[in-house]
Amino acid sequence: MSLYSEKVMDHFKNPRNVGVIEDADGVGEVGNAKCGDIMKMYIKVKDGVLIDVKFETFGCGSAIATSSMATEMIKGKPLEEALTLTNRAVTEALGGLPAYKLHCSVLAEQAVQAAILDYYKRNNIPYDASKFPDALGEHEHDHGQEEDEE
Amino acid sequence: MFVYADHAATTKMSDVALKAYSETAAQFYGNPSSLHSLGQRAKEVLEDCRGRIARAINADPREIYFTSGGSESDNQAIRSAAYAGAKKGKKKLVSTAIEHHAVLHTLKKLEREGFEVVLVPVKPNGIVDVKQLEASIDENCALVSVMLANNEIGTIQPVNEVGEICRRRGVLFHTDAVQAVGHIPVDVKEIGCDYLALSAHKFTGPKGVGVLFAKRGAPLTPLIEGGAQEKNKRAGTEDLPAIAGMTAALEASIADMGRSSAVLKRLQDKLIDGLSKIPHCALNGDRTLRLPGNISFCFEGIEGESLLLLLDEKGICASSGSACTSGSLDPSHVLLAIGRVHDVAHGSLRLTLGAENTEADVDYLLEAVPEVVTYLRNMSPVWRDLQEGRRQYIL
C-alpha cells in the first residue's frame, strides 16, 4: 500500500490510546459525520499534566492515524505544551500525508484543543482564548478541497 | 489469502485475450492505414474484429467505432448528439442522477456551453423512474442517456423501455453499457439505442480500448482529429493488439455467460445474505435487478476508506463510495441519489465478483468483512453514540 507512509499505516493498523476514559477530566469532539470524520478526545489531568489521553475516531485511515499520533505526542505533557501541538507537527511525525488528507491532521489539533478547553471550562480555570484558535472556531473544519472540477 | 473483489473497477485479462493481444502485436504490427501488404494484413485483422464485435452485440460492422474506452465513447456519443440537436434548435439533454462521471461531467460541460440538462432521479432501489424520464422529454430534447447497469450498485436499468420511448418521441438514445457488456446479454436492436459505449477491461480484455456503437444515420462528430481512421470519426492509429484482445475477451465472455452468471449469482446471494446479518447495514440497489457479481452495502457508524485499508491488509481488494476514496468532499452521487444520507454513504463497501472467484473467497469475505466492521465500530464515537442512544440509527 503506497497511499500512506509506513508510519501512517502503523498508527492506522495499531492505533495507540484508542478507547474511552470514563471519568475523563475533559472531552473534545470535532468534525461531523456528514463530512465523514469525527474525532473524540478524552483527557485525564493531574497537576496540569496530561496523565492519560484516549481517542475514538470515525473516519478514514489518515484520520485514525493522526488521532493516534496526536495522543502519543501529548500524553505525559503539561497542558500548555500540549496546546502548542500543530497539525503540521502531527503530519511531520507521521512522515507526511497526501495533500488531500491534510485536513485530517487539522482535526487532530482541533480535538486536542477542544478537550483541554473543556477541562478549563469544567474547572473554571481562566484561559487565554488565543491558545485555542481551532476549538474556539477561528478555523473551520476545512477539507482544503477545491471545487470538484475537471 | 488473496481475494480480488473489485471486478467493476477492472478485470484481469483472460488467457484468450492475452494470447490474441500478444500474437497480434507480434504478427500484425503493420499500420492498417498503410498500402503495403503488411499494413493490409493488419487492416484485415481490424475489420475481422469489427465484424465479430458487431455480431456480439447484434450490430452492423459499419456501426462499430474503436475508441480508447468507455469514457471516450460516452463523451463522443453525447457531444455528437448534443451538437446535432443544437443545429435544429434542440438543446435539452435528459439523463439520470446515477450515471458514470464520463456522462455526468460531459453533460455538465455542455450545460456551461448553453445546453439544458435534466437529471432524472432514481427510485430508492436504484432504478430510474421511467415515467418521470418520459415526462422530461419534450420537442427540445436532443438526447436521452441512461446507463444499462450502474457501476456502483449494479442496478440494471429498463433501457428497452427507455429505447421504446425515445423511438416513439423521435429522440436520440445513448446507453453507457460499460458494466453490462460481457456480463449480461446486450443487443443493440433490442435496446433500440442510437449509441452504446463499451469498455474491454471490464470483461477481461485489455485496458485503454473500447467501442462506440453508433447506429447508421446517428450523428457522429470526431473528438480527435488528424486522420481518416474509423471513417473519419476517430483519428489515431488503431491499437490493433488491444482490439484483438478485446474481441477475443468479448466472445469468450459471451460464450461463458450462462455458466458464469449462474455461479456469480449463487456467490452473490450467499454474500448478500451473509453480510445482511451485520446489524445496522443495508444493501444498496435492487436485490434482483442487478448485475450478477455486484454486492454493495452501507454500514452505519464507520467510514469506507478505513474499511478498505483493513480489508487490503487481509488480502481483499474492494472499493467504496466514501468521500475519502473518491477524492472529493462528498460521498458517491449514486448512494446519495438512492437516498442514503451522507453519514451512512461514507460507510459503503462495494464487492464485485468475477469468474475466477470461488466459494472459498466468499467464505473468507464473510469472515473478514464483519470482523473489520466490528473493529472499526468499536473505535467509532458515532457507533458509541448510536449504541448509547445519543444518536438515532438511520439503517
Brief rundown of the structure:
Chain A has 150 residues and is an alpha+beta fold. Chain A has helices at residues 6-13, 61-74, 79-82, 87-93, 102-122, and strands at residues 26-32, 37-46, 49-58. Chain B has two domains: 3-10 and 257-387, Alpha-Beta Complex (Aspartate Aminotransferase, domain 1), CATH 3.90.1150.10; 15-254, Aspartate Aminotransferase, domain 2 (3-Layer(aba) Sandwich).
The Cα radius of gyration of chain B reads: 22 Å
DSSP strand (E) fraction of chain A? Answer: 15-25%
Strand order of the largest sheet of chain A: 1-2-3
What share of residues of chain B is helical? Answer: 40-55%
Mean pLDDT of chain B: 97
How is the CATH topology of the largest domain in chain B named?
Aspartate Aminotransferase, domain 2
Strand order, biggest sheet of chain B?
A: 2-8-7-6-5-3-4
- Low-confidence stretches of chain A at least 5 residues in length (pLDDT < 50)? 138-150
Explained architecture:
The complex is a heterodimer of chains A (150) and B (395). With 150 residues, chain A is α+β, with helices and mostly antiparallel strands. Chain A is built from 5 helices and 3 strands. Chain A has a 3-stranded antiparallel beta sheet with strand order 1-2-3. In chain A, strand 2 and strand 3 form a beta hairpin. Chain B is of the alpha/beta class and 395 residues long. Chain B folds into 2 domains: 139 residues, Aspartate Aminotransferase, domain 1 (Alpha-Beta Complex), CATH 3.90.1150.10; 240 residues, Type I PLP-dependent aspartate aminotransferase-like (Major domain) (Aspartate Aminotransferase, domain 2). In chain B, 44% of the residues lie in helices and 13% in strands. Chain B is built from 16 helices and 12 strands. In chain B, the strands form 3 sheets. In chain B, strands 2-8-7-6-5-3-4 form a 7-stranded mixed beta sheet, with helices on both faces. A 3-stranded antiparallel beta sheet of chain B has the order 9-10-12. Chain B has a two-stranded parallel ribbon with strand order 1-11. In chain B, helix 4 links the parallel strand 3 and strand 4. In chain B, helix 2 packs parallel to helix 9 and helix 11 packs across helix 15. Chain B is globular and about 75 Å long. Chain B starts with a strand and ends in an 8-residue tail after the last helix. The relative contact order of chain B is 0.15.
